[in-house]
From TrEMBL:
Source organism per UniProt: Gordonia soli NBRC 108243
Entry protein name: FHA domain-containing protein
Residue ranges constituting the FHA domain according to the UniProt record: 82-131
PROSITE patterns recorded: FHA_DOMAIN (PS50006)
Listed Pfam families: FHA
InterPro entries: FHA_dom (IPR000253), SMAD_FHA_dom_sf (IPR008984)
Superkingdom of origin: Bacteria
Keyword Translocase: no
Gene3D superfamilies: 2.60.200.20
Length: 154
């Protein structure tokens, strides 16, 4: 009887070890895929046409929520940064369980807008790439915060 218990314990431990290795590999693959979505790589190949279209449209004047609880919400942009999060003093107060109190900030620099993550728990994504530093946001490019998706529009 003791031999059987010992053998089952060994098999259970081995199974847990393999599950841990599997989880570690999945996490690494997700991180590598997110890093592979960097702005330099994402907009290459046909990106020149898109950049010309953006310049023709002008700079962003509105922030539009395209998906999530606040879909179709539109904010007129000015010269001040836009704070995104669940905090009551945010410019756009997100009613999203996956958003942090102070999740991200959109800041103007000349005619361009930059998004930066403010140390959120679940991260901020520009298109499909995770935002780790301040990144320029092209017009009509989705910014995802939890289940909420926003875009800059002319």
């Amino acid at each position: 009887m003791q031999g059987l218990v010992l053998q089952l314990t060994r098999i259970g431990f081995l199974l847990l070890l393999w599950l841990f290795v599997y989880a570690a590999i999945r996490t690494l693959r997700a991180d590598i895929a997110a890093a592979g979505g960097s702005p330099l790589r994402r907009y290459s190949g046909g990106g020149d046409r898109r950049r010309r279209t953006e310049r023709a449209k002008g700079s962003a004047r509105h922030l539009v929520v395209t998906h999530g609880a606040l879909a179709n919400t539109r904010i007129t942009l000015g010269a001040q940064p836009v704070l995104l999060g669940r905090a009551d003093d945010s410019t756009l107060v997100l009613t999203d369980d996956y958003a942090s109190e102070r999740h991200a900030r959109l800041s103007p620099r000349g005619d361009d807008w930059y998004v930066e993550d403010l140390g959120s728990t679940n991260g901020t994504y520009l298109d499909r790439g995770k935002v780790t530093t301040a990144v320029r946001v092209p017009l009509n490019t989705p910014i995802r915060i939890g289940k909420t998706v926003i875009e800059l529009r002319p």
